[in-house]
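User: quick one
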Amino acid sequence: MSVLDQISWIVTGYAVLVAVLAGWSAYRWRRRPPWLDSMAWMLEALLVLRAVVGLGSLLQGHRPEQESTHLIYLIASVCVMPLALRSVQGDDGAWSLGVVGVAAVVVAVISVRMVMTL
Amino acid sequence: MTRPAPPAASRSGAHQVLLLVYAVFTLSAGARAVVQLATKADQAPIAYSLSLVAAVTYALGWVAIRRASEGHTAFASRMLWIELAGVLSVGTLSLLVRDWFPDASVWSDYGIDYGFVPVVLPVAGLLWLRAQDPERKAGAATAFRVVAFAEALSWLGLLTGMFFKYVVDAGELGVQIFGPVHGIVFLTYLVVTLITWRTQRWSFPVGVLALAASVPPFCTVAFEEWARRTGRLD
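Assistant: Done. Structure below.
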């Protein structure tokens, strides 16, 4: 398994964890805890790492199976979380947990699709 | 010196989640349609064009929900129905006229590639829209009754189809039609149940029972009857 695949699977697992924690807190109808934002930013850091390594391998001449699709996923993967967190900035209501949770699910799906299109 | 807080663009609420999902679907359907039309348009022109239509619908849906969250619900109350009709028509077309869909469209098989989210999304949007209107707060309970009944009906259709396929051996058209129909109604039931769970303040066992009722045939109607009699669906 390539390094890219390994990072992608770690990202997927971590994203699912963030989604489950957000979903659980939303079910308990809590306010958004600050540590969830920290976890989401950790996830973003992993995604940036994945994107940098992925971009590096593209520049070295590796051609993914579905190149344009893969490139779109690569760009989307790093944009989703910051945009979601930005949209709930200064709002820690229970619904904001839903936004973070959905964003984490989207990230998980994108990172699985990235493995599939590589 | 502190600056006054900027006015909140929109209140906290379910629309925040809806807006994110609509944005994600606008981008993913749009990117998919553009890439496919640009690289292999001649393979499945109808399917790819319909994907583009889906992307435009999601963009308009995003605008509609944003306006509705600011109190202007008129556009959303039309747009969400148009979206639901679109998903259902394209989904049905993709099952009936296979020739038009050599490759999948976003709404093919009622959005099976996207975990049926396309068909659940407008329903969730419409439920949210109803909850926005204080005079129609009871809408969620009504929606639960309707969906519980529809779930039982789709079971009936699927069982009829299975009867003709396995017992009479008269082809599997019934199963091909009612399989996906039942799938959609089942998922809609789960979503509506989760909403009703919250709005009716059901206890954890009652909520789990409501979800479990969707598994055996016709049990959703039995649950609905019981919930109504015991005052759990006001």
